[in-house]
Amino acid sequence: MGDVTKVYAGPGIFVWGVSATGAAETDAVTIDLTQGGINFATTTTYFEPTVDQFGSAPVKSIITGITGTITFETPDMDFEKVVKFNPNTDKIVDGTTPTKVKYEVSGLAGQELPRKRAVIKPLGIMDPNRFIYIEACAVKFDLNAGYQLDNNQRMAISAAAYPSTDPDHYGLLYTWGDIAATA
After folding, report:
1. Please, how many CA atoms are within 13 Å of residue 65, restricted to the half-sphere of its CB?
2. CA 85 distance to own-chain centroid
3. Are 93 and 79 spatial neighbours (Cβ–Cβ below 8 Å)?
4. Could you tell me the superkingdom of the organism this chain comes from (predicted)?
5. How far is CA 164 from CA 21, 27, 101, 157, 169, in A?
6. Total-model pTM
7. DSSP letter (8 states) at residue 182
8. For residue 144, what pLDDT is reported?
9. Nearest to residue 131, comparing CAs of 115, 120, 139, 146?
10. Residues 103, 92: contact at Cβ < 8 Å?
């Protein structure tokens, strides 16, 4: 029988830039304000060979790749965070009045998104068994900066989870639970 104490709900926190022990790095980006929750989903692709004798029905399935996506919206409009994960964003500080600051986002193609380990954890929960660590995560974002009476500005975040190329975690996509657990 299922355990109803393991039915979970509630908001989450996204941290981009965590160490191998799960601690936030000094330049980590923490997003702890979301609207609509945080979703992590994986997508698996398959090669499904067929034989003439069975027509178009596959005879087996072979995994050809697995990736993941993290999606959420945040009303946190702090562009200091965007500068850290988006190579097309620059912070410009006025040369004579340092309180004058602007952020420029270019539309130039060809920039590779930086990858870091990230974690999704439930708000107020300190049990690492409930955390999801994404081994190689690149953050994508789009701005939704409308001015409306009954809605707020927000950034749409869609982070990509890739298999790790780190020799210590080669091929690892994500870890569900305590990242510090060892065999």
Report:
1. 6
2. 11
3. no
4. Bacteria
5. 16, 20, 36, 21, 6
6. 0.89
7. -
8. 78
9. 120
10. yes
Q: How confident is the model at residue 23 (pLDDT cuts 50, 70, 90)?
A: very high
Phi and psi of 83, rounded to 5°? -60, -35
Tens digits of residue pLDDT in 33-57: 999 999 999 999 999 999 999 999 9
pLDDT, one tens digit per residue, over 120-139 is: 999 988 889 999 999 999 99
Is residue 75 a contact partner of residue 31, using CB atoms and an 8 Å limit? no
Domain range list for the chain: 12-176
How many angstroms from the chain centroid is the CA of residue 77? 17
Whether 52 and 90 have beta carbons less than 8 Å apart is answered as no
What is the identity of the amino acid at 138? A
Q: Which amino acid is at 121?
A: K
